[in-house]
Amino acid sequence: MNKLVVAAGIAASLAFGAPALAQTKPTIPIIVKDTTSPYWQTVLAGARKAGQVLGVNVPELGPKSESDIDGQISILKNAVASNPAAIIIAPAQFAALGKPIDEAAHKVKIIGIDSPADSKAFTSFLTTDNEQSGRFAADALAEAIKRTYADAEGDVALITSLPGVASLDQRAKGFKEQIAAKYGALDIVAEKVGDGNATTGSGIMMDLITGHPELRGVFASNPVMTQGAAQTLAQNSTNKTGDKINLVGFGSNDELVKSLQNGAIAALLVPDPFRMGYDGVKIALAASRGQQVPANVDTGANLITKANISSARSQELLNPKIK
User: Fold this and answer.
1) Which of 41, 64, 201, 262 has its CB 3.0 to 4.6 Å from that of 225, i.e. a possible disulfide?
2) SS (H, E, C) 100-111
3) 1 within some domain
4) Which residues contact 78 (CB under 8 A, 6 or more apart)?
5) Rounded to a whole number, what is the distance in angstroms from the first to the last CA of the chain?
6) Rounded Cα–Cα distance for residues 189 and 150 (Å)
7) CA torsion, points 253, 258, 263, 267, in degrees to nearest 10?
8) Is residue 3 one of the residues assigned to a domain?
9) What's the pLDDT tens digit per position in 17-51?
10) Is residue 206 part of a domain?
11) Which domain holds residue 168?
C-alpha cells in the first residue's frame, strides 16, 4: 500500500511538472579558438544564452591564443572524458584537429562551428559561408575602388592571418575567384600571410604600400589583420602616387568600428557569432537527444559601411550583448 501511495505521488508530481525526481541538466561544453578575443567572447555569449533558455550547462572552454593548437586538443580530450551530452568545437587548425575530432566522435556527438577540420565525424557544422564572404569582399572592394577612381581597375592585395586555417583559406579562395570572374581590370599583385598579430598586419600593410606604388585596394580576411592594416592606413592612407587605398576587412571590434567611421576602412564583412554560439547549443542538444539535425548551417555575413552603420541590424552585429 505504501509503495502504491509513493508511486502515485511521484506520478502526480511529474504530471504537474514538480521536481519530485531531480533532473540533471545536460552538459554541452563549447570549445573556441581563443577565449580572449571579442569574436569568440560573442560566440560564448550566444552559447551561454542558449544554455539559459534551453536548460543546458555550457562550460566555456578554449586556449588563450588561437595559435595554441596543442592546448585546444588537450581541452577537447578532457571534455570528452567528462562524458558530456555533446561537444561544440571551433577547430583551430584544419589538419591537426582532424584525428582528435575523429577519436572524440567515437564517444560523443561533435558539433563543429566556424572552421572545418580534416574530419567527417561532425554531426552538424555551423559556419559563415566563407567562400561566399570572400566573394562579397571582392564585390565590396571593387565598389569602393570604383567610387574612388570611377572604374574598378588597378592593383589590389590580400592579407590573411595564419596558414592552414580553413576558414581563412576559403575566404581567400572566394575573393580570388570573384576577382578573376568579374573584375578583369583588377590585378591581385600580392598575397600576404601574417602570424595572428595586429602589429604584423600593420607591417605587412606598410610593405604593400612600399612595394606596390599603385596599390588601390586590400582585403584583410580576419579581424586582427584588418585592425593592423587599418592602423597603418590611418597614418598612410594613400599609395606612392598619392591615390587612396581602400581596405575591406572581415569581422568587428571597437577599433575596427572606429576605423570604419574615420574612413581607414571602406567596408567590413561582419559575421553573426552570437547566432553561431546560440544555434550551436540548440543543435547539439537536439543531436544528443537523437533528433535529426541539419548537416550544415550557414550563419551568414553582413556588409557594413559608413552609410549603413547606424541601422538596427548593423548595431546588433557591431555591439552584441556579451555579458
Assistant:
1) 201
2) HHHHHHCCCEEE
3) no
4) none
5) 53
6) 21
7) 20
8) no
9) 334 334 589 999 999 999 998 889 999 999 999 99
10) yes
11) 130-271
Number of H helices and E strands in the chain, helices first, is 11, 12
Write the burial class of residue 254 (CB in 10 Å: 0-12 exposed, 13-18 middle, 19+ buried). Answer: exposed
pTM for the whole structure? 0.74
**In this structure, are residues 179 and 143 in contact, taking their beta carbons and an 8 Å threshold?**
no
d(CA 167, CA 129): 9
For the record, the C-alpha cell of 86 comes out as 555533446
Structure confidence at residue 23 (pLDDT): 58
Angle formed by the axes of helices 38-54 and 273-288, nearest 10°: 40
Q: What type of residue sits at position 2?
A: N
Quote the DSSP letter at residue 96: T
- Backbone φ, ψ for residue 27 (5° rounding): -110, 125
Strands 109-113 and 301-304: unpaired
Sign of CA dihedral 96, 101, 102, 104: positive
CA separation for the pair 225, 193 (Å, rounded)? 9
Task: Write the CATH number for 295.
Answer: 3.40.50.2300
**Residue 320 resides in a domain:** no
CA distance 70 to 75: 9
Cell of 200: 604584423
State the pairing for strand pair 86-89/30-31: parallel
Dihedral angle sign, alpha carbons of residues 43, 276, 115, 192: negative
DSSP string for 7-58: HHHHHHHHHTT--SS--PPPB--EE-S-TTSHHHHHHHHHHHHHHHHHT-B-
Instruction: Average the pLDDT over 283-308 and give the result.
Output: 96
